[in-house]
Amino acid sequence: MSAITLEQLLSIMPLARLRAAAFLAPLNAAMVEFGITTPARQASFLSQVGHESGQLRYVRELASGQAYEGRADLGNTQRGDGVRFRGRGLLQVTGRANYAACGKALGLDLLAQPELLEQTVNACRSAGWFWQTRGLNALADAGDQERVTRRINGGVNGLAERLALYREARKVLV
After folding, report:
1. CA dihedral in degrees (65, 134, 118, 11; nearest 10)?
2. Does one domain contain both 106 and 128?
3. Are the C-beta atoms of 39 and 81 separated by less than 8 Å?
4. Model-level pTM?
5. Most Cβ neighbours (<10 Å): which of 33, 107, 122, 173?
6. Domain ranges, residue 31
7. From CA 14, how far away is CA 168, in angstroms rounded?
8. Quick one: three-class SS letters along the chain?
């Protein structure tokens, strides 16, 4: 695997601007840690990260999280869980159950400190963890960006932008 360069990252995510430099090393480390090690996997991962994070501008969901209140499918069983465990990290880990699983895997107490996923390294590692645990390397290897999007988003929200980012990443990561 070749590490992506700052120039490549900015070509894929031009809106990242000044934030790209801070995310470059943690993104490369997370991709190695979670097996995102081929150009196809990297292009797919970076295109999804680009969409979900507004090109590295957001590590916390803009919405309040109120919509997730009482969502048992996310493990949000206690009052306030929706807001407390709203999307964080570059792929927006959401819900008490996902925070618990992610925290266990990464060695972080995310139930006590969910905001740890807003830190650059943790935002990148949580995205890699989410990617790996959802079997997304196999879908990236197959080039199935729609199925990758469905596993991340639950639907095809933002598919056009994700595909545009993917096409640019495929050109840049040869």
Report:
1. -110
2. no
3. no
4. 0.96
5. 122
6. 6-57+120-172
7. 11
8. CCCCCHHHHHHHCHHHCCHHHHHHHHHHHHHHHCCCCCHHHHHHHHHHHHHHCCCCCCCECCCCCHHHCCCHHHCCCCCCHHHHCCCECCCCECCHHHHHHHHHHHCCCCCCCHHHHHCHHHHHHHHHHHHHHCCHHHHHHHCCHHHHHHHHHCCCCCHHHHHHHHHHHHHHCC
Give the CA angle between residues 84, 96, 119 to the nearest 5°: 60
Contact 36, 131 (CB under 8 A): yes
Q: In this structure, are 127 and 113 located in the same domain?
A: no
> Do residues 173 and 43 lie in contact, with contact meaning Cβ atoms separated by under 8 Å?
yes
Structure confidence by residue, pLDDT tens digits, 68-117: 999 999 999 999 999 999 999 999 999 999 999 999 999 999 999 999 99
CATH code of the domain in which 96 resides: 3.30.20.10
What is the domain count for the chain? Answer: 2
